[in-house]
Specification:
The complex is a heterotrimer of chains A (142), B (501) and C (412).
Chain A: E1 2-6, H1 16-24, H2 31-35, E2 45-49, E3 52-56, H3 65-69, E4 75-78, E5 81-84, H4 94-98, E6 105-106, E7 112-113, H5 127-131, E8 137-141
Chain B: E1 10-14, H1 24-28, E2 34-37, E3 42-45, H2 55-59, E4 65-69, H3 82-94, E5 99-100, E6 115-117, E7 138-140, E8 148-149, E9 155-156, E10 163-165, E11 169-171, H4 181-194, E12 198-199, E13 216-220, H5 229-234, E14 237-241, E15 252-254, H6 261-267, E16 275-277, H7 287-300, E17 307-312, H8 317-326, E18 331-335, E19 344-345, H9 346-351, H10 356-369, E20 377-381, H11 387-395, E21 400-403, H12 405-411, H13 433-436, H14 441-466, H15 471-474, E22 481-483, H16 488-494, E23 497-498
Parallel strand pairs in B: 11-21, 12-13, 13-14, 14-17, 17-18, 18-20, 20-21, 22-23
Antiparallel strand pairs in B: 1-4, 2-3, 5-19, 6-22, 7-10, 8-9, 15-16
Helix pairs in contact in B: 4-14, 8-10, 11-14
Chain C: E1 3-6, H1 10-22, E2 28-32, H2 44-49, H3 54-57, H4 65-68, E3 71-75, E4 79-83, E5 88-91, E6 96-98, E7 101-104, E8 108-110, E9 124-125, H5 130-140, E10 147-151, H6 155-164, E11 170-175, H7 187-199, E12 202-206, E13 210-213, E14 217-220, E15 225-227, E16 230-233, E17 237-239, H8 242-246, E18 255-256, E19 268-270, E20 275-279, E21 284-286, H9 291-305, E22 318-323, E23 326-332, E24 337-343, E25 346-353, E26 356-363, H10 370-377, H11 387-392, H12 401-409
Parallel strand pairs in C: 1-2, 1-7, 2-3, 7-19, 9-16, 10-11, 10-16, 11-12, 18-20
Antiparallel strand pairs in C: 4-5, 5-6, 8-17, 13-14, 14-15, 20-21, 22-23, 23-26, 24-25, 25-26
Classes of the chains: A alpha+beta (142), B alpha/beta (501), C alpha/beta (412).
């Protein structure tokens, strides 16, 4: 299955992936409309310190602890990708407790949000990857 | 605070209707132009620090930025231009030599743009390169003047070492130090993929790049930095650098600040020391001296590698080239006055040397006149900007071209001409790790391959149009060129007729 | 192969999904006293709170789950006996179901200690099942006028309080322990949560217990009297071990299983709240009645029942909970060296021992807590990471570059 992979060697800490993510999941038609005067809550997040930086988003584990521990069945695996049904999610944060990568976060609505590889938004392909200027994030089979 | 005589050259124009304050501009500007102001809640800019490198413009996800030349002006004066005045202010302030980088930007004539290419009509067929073979492969090196046979009449090979180029384009010398590790990696990998060569410059060869040796030209320059037996043996050819088009007659200077552990090891000099390449080679004061070095290097590599000699295009370049050809060099490389540099005194860059077009024509003619054109290949550089320049150069007599500025542009360079600051925002002319990583060689090498492949396609198209199907038939074929708006003397030197003739 | 599962909770789902990883075809039978398709038990408080509905709750797995997995669901049927020699289970209804491999996922039941006068109380319930929640919902009605007394300030009692506090005139929680969440939290964090819950109008009576109930009031040891309209008993739970014990399985507080979820009787497995787990953080055997653990044990059982070879030895106590907007995540045990940070209303306690993270308590800021959990679960030597960075916040930056490359560059 194709996944998003991160190579910190090439990460510039520009944070553009976060903005492209926020845009892709905003449902808006342009980035300006989606993000101007907004504080973003992206599903991919940069960790940075000194000159090291890298993006972290859902690894779409083959054996996902978040899915197994989900109390509501809101987290599911569809064709290998881990998806969230925010309607079912009650915001208990058991997935936050479980994920070894810290890849799930609280969304604005009380439900959890996470990377769904842009499969559920209008973009269709991970937009963080498209927005990365240095191929530090790639979408490929490994 | 002293009076600041200098007004910023550029203005940062930010379209606030589009800016989303993502701060990519701020994070990507090593000159610290952009800043998010939390009190205002929006981005601000200090344009006095801007070098107009377009990194921020290119990365802005909403295209909210552009950089424009300031319209702040001095009182109009055709002689004392704003630039001339500002340079006086700058030197009056610092007492220093003005430094610049990349090639001569002054509005001197560009002969390439005054030369036109021929095409077939009616009486001779043009060739469609998509349907018929078209050869742009070429070989550099001395060509034998006669065929040798043994007593049985079999041919005895008497070919001296050659460089095989799949395309008549090589990447010219840029040292590791002047450009980054990742820039070098990009050039090396592209050279391998394209079946051509890149050149180490005088910075030695990083141990990681020995694997690309068969596509590497190793340079020996006046500082002899990084030269040792393994280095010489690693390359496909050795280039002796006598001069550089951007700064003929002077040496080089890599500030100690850029000499980190890796560069120190590669150049074989102590960490943090200035790397100073002397103006002349102190063992070469004559063609005879040059011949000694040429043969020393051949001896050291058992006559298995071509030796190239690179000179800057200066006034009597034809005579010098003749001498170089007689020194035993296999290839003469001529660098025109628009050739780039990582740092040169501005006055020298902008006033010394001659155009490569004239130098090439003169050298080719002189070598032919003397009957020694076959003894050497001629490679030219110093602003080959596109495939038309390339074709014209070959028709004027070049065997192949060197490109460097074009290659750096492919890697992201925006010709801001501030390489000397060491803060290249594109990760090219810098040694700062956080900037170097901005150039991912996976991307860089691909862009170089794309560029050269595109030029090769165009070259074939144009050759086909002329009814020519191989580089060999194009080389020195000045009948295929016509001048436009050139005077008699210029046409005479170029060896071409005026358009309409 | 004929698989039978007793119980229809999360562990049972784990068993079904575990079996189907290995064996796609053999029949599976699920027998459960509850009439509902599987639902996430912890959801019952969210049901009262209005964050979910019964319809959504029973979609813990899709409606076609049983059919898709070739499962015969015998719901509303209670198992009366396991005959491990004949390899059959007998139902109260008189039917007998044969099995080749059996998994006991019987869970637990509310523990109701003897309390004087409890029988006098008409409006009372436990808080464990969907039926309990529905019962409580009915008793609460729509008038927001009821006074509710909850006995037990553990997770169940407090989640119940959260579920109903906006729908009542008064909630009082009483517990014998001197602090709330005595099994989950230490003193200080318990008091933070308590204050927060109190700020929402819930009253606590701690270090106290009921001496005597009447129909609508409780007289406490301290002499106080609390009036109520509805009583919720949430003192604790007891594992349902009887069936397994009678079948010959070794049982102490819970059913004993190995890391393959096998009991001591051949072809009988067990998973979930009815079992004893090995807690690798505290290095003790204990009952870990938590949902993710139930799933993991169930899945392990399922895979092994179907002929696979899967071990699960990473059980630790852990909990993610929120009370009226204040989030809390805890895991592991709290014996060892303590590293405490309290700022901006957030509480963070890390506990280490012998170069390992053993436990943590986060209140307020709980972002990326799973990185901490993983350090405990995977028993990562702290000397192999930058502990100062980990103390600052959960971050992958604390790992070596090589480890990170593995984590972010590979499939897991």
């Amino acid at each position: 299955m194709k996944r998003v992979y991160v190579n910190e060697k090439w990460c510039l800490g520009c944070h553009l992936c976060e903005y492209y993510c926020a845009f892709a999941n905003s449902g808006k038609s342009s980035m300006v409309k989606a993000l101007r005067d907004h504080k973003i809550a992206p599903r991919i997040k940069i960790e940075e310190r000194n000159n090291i930086s890298f993006a972290v988003s859902c690894r779409h584990c083959e054996d996902p602890l978040c899915v197994k521990g989900c109390i509501s069945g809101a987290l599911t695996i569809e064709s290998g990708a881990v998806h969230i049904d925010s309607d079912k999610c009650v915001g208990c944060y058991t997935c936050i407790l479980s994920c070894p990568y810290g890849a799930l976060s609280a969304g604005d609505t009380g439900a959890i949000q996470k990377c769904e590889l842009c499969q559920k938004n209008s973009h269709g392909q991970p937009m963080c990857v498209e927005g990365c200027p240095n191929k530090a994030i790639v979408y490929e089979e490994r | 605070m002293a009076i600041d005589f200098l007004y910023p050259e550029y203005e940062v124009v930010r379209n606030m209707d589009r800016c989303i304050s993502c701060r990519a501009c701020e994070r990507q500007c090593a000159n610290e132009v952009h800043k998010y102001d939390p009190d205002f809640g929006y981005m601000t800019a200090d344009e006095s620090k801007c070098v107009n490198c377009h990194r921020c413009v290119s990365l802005c996800p909403t295209r909210a930025l552009k950089i424009v030349k300031t319209d702040h002006t001095f009182k109009e004066n055709a002689n004392w231009t704003g630039k001339a005045i500002s340079e006086v202010y700058r030197q009056a302030g610092t007492g220093g030599v003005l430094l610049s980088s990349m090639g001569n930007p002054e509005p001197f004539p560009i002969y390439w743009d005054k030369i036109l290419i021929n095409a077939s009509q009616v009486t001779n067929p043009s060739i469609d390169p998509l349907r018929e073979p078209m050869e742009t492969k070429t070989f550099l090196g001395k060509k034998p003047g006669h065929i040798e046979r043994d007593e049985n009449g079999h041919i005895v090979p008497n070919m001296t070492p050659q460089l095989e180029l799949n395309v008549p384009i090589m990447f010219s010398a840029m040292s590791y130090g002047s450009i980054s590790y990742n820039a070098h990696a990009s050039l090396a990998r592209a050279a391998v993929e394209l079946g051509t060569y890149y050149n180490t410059g005088e910075g030695g060869l990083h141990e990681d790049f020995y694997q690309y040796g068969p596509h590497t030209i190793v340079q020996v320059a006046s500082g002899r930095f990084g030269v040792h037996k393994d280095y010489l043996e690693a390359g496909a050819a050795i280039e002796i650098k006598m001069g550089q088009g951007a700064k003929p007659g002077i040496g080089g200077h890599l500030p100690g600040l850029k000499v980190g552990p890796d560069i120190s090891k590669t150049r074989m000099i102590p960490e943090g020391t200035d790397a100073i390449s002397p103006a002349p080679h102190h063992d070469i004061y004559s063609i005879e001296d040059l011949r000694q070095l040429v043969f020393s290097l051949k001896e050291a590599t058992e006559y298995k590698k071509p030796v190239m000699v690179k000179i800057a295009a200066v006034h009597n370049v034809a005579a010098i080239a003749s001498g170089v050809a007689r020194s035993g060099a296999d290839v003469i490389c001529i660098d025109g006055y628009r050739g780039g540099t990582g740092a040169a005194p501005t006055r020298i860059r902008d006033n010394v040397g001659i155009p490569i077009e004239l130098a090439l024509a003169a050298v080719d003619q002189r070598l032919r006149d003397e009957g020694i054109r076959d003894q050497v290949s001629v490679v030219v550089g110093g602003s080959i900007r596109n495939s038309a320049d390339l074709l014209k150069a070959i028709a004027l007599g070049a065997d192949a071209c060197y490109i460097a500025t074009s290659a750096l542009l492919a890697l992201g360079c925006h010709l801001c001409r501030t390489c000397q600051s060491g803060k290249c925002n594109w990760g090219i002319a810098t040694q700062r790790p956080e900037l170097v990583k901005r150039l991912n060689p996976d991307i860089g090498s691909q862009r170089l391959v794309n560029l050269v492949t595109a030029w090769d396609h165009e070259l074939k198209e144009m050759m086909g149009g002329m009814g020519i199907n191989s580089i060999e038939a194009l080389r020195g074929n000045r009948l295929m060129l016509r001048g436009l708006g050139l005077n008699e003397k210029e046409l005479e030197i170029l060896g071409i007729k005026h358009a309409g003739e | 192969m004929n698989y039978v599962i007793i119980g229809n909770g999360t562990a049972a789902v784990g068993v079904i999904e575990g079996i189907r990883v290995v064996d796609k075809t053999s029949p599976i039978t699920v027998i459960s006293s509850e009439p509902y398709p599987v639902y996430g038990r912890p959801l019952i408080s969210y049901l009262l709170l209005g964050k979910t509905t019964e319809e959504k709750m029973v979609q813990y797995r899709p409606a076609s789950f049983y059919e898709d997995n070739g499962v015969t669901a015998m719901l509303g049927k209670t198992v009366s006996q396991i005959d491990s020699a004949a390899k059959t289970v007998a139902l109260e209804s008189g039917e007998t179901v044969p099995y080749d491999k059996l998994c006991v996922c019987t869970g637990s039941r509310p523990f109701v200690p003897p309390m004087n006068g409890l029988d006098e109380v008409a409006n009372k319930t436990s808080f464990m099942t969907l039926d309990d929640a529905k019962h409580l919902d009915t008793m609460l009605g729509d008038a927001n006028d009821k006074r509710v007394l909850i006995v037990g300030a553990g997770l169940i009692g407090l989640k119940c309080a959260e579920g109903i506090y906006q729908r009542v005139s008064e909630v009082t929680v009483i517990d014998l322990a001197p602090r709330i969440l005595p099994n989950v939290l230490t003193e200080k964090p318990a008091s933070i949560i308590q204050k927060h819950i109190e700020s929402k109008g819930v009253k606590f009576l701690l270090a106290d217990s009921v001496e005597q109930f009447t129909a609508d009031s409780a007289t406490l040891k301290s002499g106080k009297t609390v009036g109520f309209d509805i009583l919720v008993v949430a003192v604790g739970v007891r594992p349902n071990t009887e069936l397994a014990a009678e079948a010959g399985c070794a049982v102490n507080r819970g059913i004993l299983i190995n890391d393959h979820s096998a009991t001591t009787v051949a072809d009988i497995y067990a998973a979930g709240d009815c079992t004893v787990s090995h807690d690798i953080a505290a290095e003790t055997d204990r009952i870990l009645a938590i949902l993710p653990n139930a799933y993991m044990q169930g899945e392990t059982a399922g895979m092994n029942m179907a002929g696979g070879d899967r071990g699960f030895n990473k059980a630790i106590p852990m909990n993610a909970s929120g009370f009226m907007g204040l989030h809390m995540i805890t895991a592991g045990s709290y014996e060892g060296e303590e590293y405490l940070t309290e700022e901006d209303g957030n509480y963070k306690l890390l506990v280490t021992k012998d170069d390992h993270l053993k436990g943590f308590i986060l209140i307020g800021e709980v972002d990326r807590a799973g990185i901490y959990t993983s350090l405990i679960r995977e028993q990562v030597p702290l000397s192999s990471i930058d502990f100062d960075l980990i103390r600052e916040k959960p971050q992958l930056m604390a790992f070596s570059r090589a480890e990170r490359a593995k984590q972010l560059g590979g499939a897991h």
